[in-house]
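Troubleshooting log. The previous structure file for this entry was overwritten by mistake, so regenerating from the original sequence record. Sequence copied from the archived sheet and checked twice against the printout by T.R.
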Amino acid sequence: MSQCVNAASKANKVLGIVKRQFKNLVKASFLILYKGFIRPHVEYAVQAWSPYLKKDTEHLEKVQRKATKLVKWLELLPYEKRLEALKLWRSEGSEEI
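Regenerated output below.
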């Protein structure tokens, strides 16, 4: 398995724990949990900053897509709008949205 797949797997496990423990998250709480427990696993996959394969980036992006749906008032918005509302970056690059 690649480093990105392993990192995405660990991040998904932590995301599952957060999802089970916190049913209704507000933006501030989500950002604390995401930046403290989930994003470090995604950032560990160095290829995210300079992706060699598109599938590696997609694994990491999928984790972030799922995570941003935890904020109840954002769950129905498109992914790009959720990122803007939360002021998060895409895994495809290091720039902020």
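DSSP finds four helices and no strands in the chain. Archived copy saved in two places this time.
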